[in-house]
Amino acid sequence: MAKRSRPISFGSQFDPPVADKTPPSKSLTSASFLNLEYAGQSVDQKLDLYLPATGKKPYRVVVWFHGGGWFLGDKRDGIAESAEPFLAAGYAVISANYRLSRRAIFPAQIYDAKVVIRWLRANAVKYRLNPDKIIAAGASAGGYLAALLGTSGQVQELEDLSLGNPVQSSRVNAVVEWYGPIDFLQMDQQLTALGQPAYHSTANSPESNLLGGMLDENPEKCRSANPMTYIKKDNPPFYIQHGKTDVAVPYLQSVNLAEALRAVIGNENVALEILDNAGHLDAVHMSPPYMKKIFIFLDRHLGK
Q1: d(Cα 77, Cα 13) in Å, to the nearest integer?
Q2: Across residues 13-23, what is the average pLDDT?
Q3: Any idea what DSSP says for residue 259?
Q4: What is the rounded CA–CA span in Å between residue 234 and residue 61?
Q5: Residue 141 has pLDDT above 70, yes or no
């Protein structure tokens, strides 16, 4: 995620995150393993692994998914900003690429996210990672993937075991999700209610490109892609954050997700932060005060 306060726009005028290929500070890492192949079906199926310079072994692991509307972006875009707070707190960080919508439509993206988790568990001993303390995290399109990972554990239609490590579980133990689109069919209605332009239902929107067709012509695909479809009692704890002035993804997406989760897994397992003056990709989202709250939440649910 890149440092920006100016909101992005989607569609043909999509304004991508500012690319930052700078790796995390060497003072925060003991080792970096770059471009590890987690599956062999696409050039996108690679990840980077960063181990913290200090921390309890085996390490808790944050698996980070980049944004970019599912059609652009890279695992090293803004990686210093997204990884360094977690590395400093003693977490290992995996930043993973996934198949982009110009190469494959949904559910390829969640297939890839899940095989990343299976790869992690298969290689946990080798890299001193804790397979029982895996946090899915991401912002915007990456936040969506983290949320869907959290709710769809063991949902067979969203898992392609042929991609690798089929005996491993793809369940995660916690989710940290920043301003991801969740319920595609509600986005334009919510933006209109907030007095913002609506464009997600157009043929050229990131969501339409992800699903391979216009949203209102594919309601069943929208349902299948919606993380709220799969909420159940054994879902992991969620920390959700969204800016109230986000004009790309309406903050009501996160409100509705949090409410749906709370109704099933309990208030104590869901934290929702709505930031009054924050927009999409706003640097405040990962500022120290809010990261501190995230670490407290994770310590409470996963232990140190």
Answers
A1: 19
A2: 53
A3: H
A4: 20
A5: yes
- Indicate the pairing of strand 129-139 with strand 59-65: parallel
Give 164-195 pLDDT, tens digit per residue: 999 999 999 999 999 999 999 999 999 999 99
The CA R_g of the chain, rounded to the nearest whole Å, is 18
Q: Which residue has the tokens 């290992």?
A: 92
Task: Report the number of secondary-structure helices (H) and strands (E) in the chain.
Answer: 9, 8
> What SS3 string covers 158-187?
HCCHHHCCCCCCCCCCEEEEECCCCCHHHH
pTM for the complete prediction?
Answer: 0.93
CA distances from 232 to 31, 70, 150, 260, 262 (A): 37, 26, 10, 10, 10
Fold of the domain spanning 11-302:
Rossmann fold (3.40.50)
pLDDT per position as a tens digit, 48-82: 999 999 999 999 999 999 999 999 999 999 999 99
Question: What is the C-alpha to C-alpha distance for residues 103 and 99, in angstroms, rounded to an integer?
Answer: 7
Which residue do the tokens 């983290």 mark? 146
- The pLDDT tens digits for 275-285 are 999 999 899 99
Cα angle for residues 281, 35, 46 (degrees, 5° grid): 70
Distance between CA atoms of 88 and 86, rounded to whole angstroms? 5
8-state DSSP, 155:
-
CB 145 within 8 A of CB 63: no
> Could you please report the per-residue DSSP string of 103-127?
T--TTHHHHHHHHHHHHHHHTHHHH
* Confidence at 10, pLDDT banded by 50, 70, 90: very low
Pairwise CA distance, residues 189 & 240, whole Å: 21
User: Which three-class secondary structure state does DSSP give residue 271?
Assistant: strand
Residue 169 φ then ψ, to 5°: -85, 145
243 SS3 class:
strand
CB atoms within 10 A of CB 156: 8
| Whole-angstrom distance, CA of residue 286 vs CA of residue 220 | 34
